Amino acid sequence: MATFLVPVLIVLDQIFKLWAERSLDPVPDPFLPGLYLTYVKNTGIAFGLFQGNSEPLGWLSLAVGIPILLYLGYARSAVGTRLALSLVAAGALGNAIDRIGRGYVIDYLDLGPGLWPVFNLADALVVVGVLLLVLEGLFRRRSQ
After folding, report:
1. Neighbours of 58 (CB within 10 A)
2. Has 29 been annotated as catalytic?
3. pLDDT tens across 59-109, in order?
4. Is 98 known to be catalytic?
5. pTM to 2 decimals?
């Protein structure tokens, strides 16, 4: 599953970013209730931290994504763990491609002006993957 899921998610992430770069502007555009589409070039990480450090952050993203990908290729983990790690790897690698290749990450999903930083699919994958790992750890601890 992971060997298929990670590249598919990376390709989807890059397709959405290319679309955002070509179709959106920095002015929030209502899409769905509570969701706007806004084009942002992010040279840092979430919440505006470490701006102007795309290249080192890109290498850090690779340092996170590649070992997880290698682990997924050899380890025999539970399906939930493999899914969660696949999401984290795809998100880290998707943003690494932007940081190293473009010098910035393209963000486009906006929960409302000023409510939350603008983010992208790769960011969401990392957050959901980490949350799944935390939940799995909590459930595993309770069952022991």
Report:
1. 22
2. no
3. 999 999 999 999 998 888 888 899 999 999 999 999 999 999 999 999 999
4. no
5. 0.90
